[in-house]
Design brief:
CATH architecture of the largest domain: Orthogonal Bundle
Helix content: 55-70%
Radius of gyration: 22 Å
CATH topology of the largest domain: Topoisomerase I, Chain A, domain 4
Structural class: alpha+beta
Number of helices: 4
Oligomer: single chain
Number of strands: 6
CATH superfamily of the largest domain: Ribosome-recycling factor
Order of helices and strands: HEEEEHEEHH
Shape: elongated
Strand order of the largest sheet: 3-4-6-5
Largest sheet: 4 strands, antiparallel
Distance between the termini: 54 Å
């Protein structure tokens, strides 16, 4: 059985991965300005295999309202257009045969509010993931205590340390939420 430090290290690593996953998800939520993160993880049918767009094309934001996508293989251009049109981005690709241009429209007030709610749901999902990791750690400590591997005091101390880790990562997620909501509401 693992010792207390191993359980804490494992839980911390998993919580950090949850924060990273949330950061990637929030990066894909559209704001009023163009960002390659909006489309880089859209799946493109690349010779029969669903592949993230960032692996088949160069994505740049030459200005605040425009994204340019230049596929490395011109034959995948139509598949990239299809991936953009079937996504929930509400954007229409404009192609000249070698480069796709995506104009990022201004967001309406109601769309901004919808996006803020979406951000809240994604962050709450992150909170749930971190709390599930905490619960798993607490169970490990209780199991160690029942197996007489650690004392009751050591179990309580370990659970307190785990709660501090949980609070730290949930705080990071809440800060990401505040920043993303502010970015979405910015005109």
């Amino acid at each position: 059985m693992a010792d207390v430090d191993e359980v804490l290290d494992d839980a911390g690593g998993r919580m950090e991965k949850s924060v990273g996953a949330l950061e990637r998800e929030l990066g894909g939520i559209r704001t009023g300005r163009a960002s390659p993160k909006l489309v880089e993880n859209l799946l493109v049918d690349y010779y029969g295999a669903p592949t993230p767009m960032k692996h088949v094309a160069s994505i740049t934001a030459p200005d605040a309202r425009l994204l340019t996508i230049q596929p490395w293989d011109k034959s995948v251009l139509k598949d990239i257009e299809k991936a953009i049109m079937t996504s929930d981005l509400d954007m229409n690709p404009n192609s000249d045969g070698s480069v796709i241009r995506l104009s990022v429209p201004f967001l309406t007030e109601s769309r901004r509010r919808d996006l803020v709610r979406l951000v809240g749901r994604k962050v709450e999902g992150g909170h749930v993931a971190v709390r599930n990791i905490r619960r798993s750690g607490v169970e490990s400590f209780r199991s160690m205590q029942r197996g007489k591997e650690i004392s009751e005091d050591e179990s309580r101390r370990a659970q307190s340390d785990l709660q501090e880790l949980t609070d730290l990562y949930i705080g990071q997620m809440d800060e990401m939420k505040r920043a993303k909501e502010q970015e979405v509401m910015e005109i």
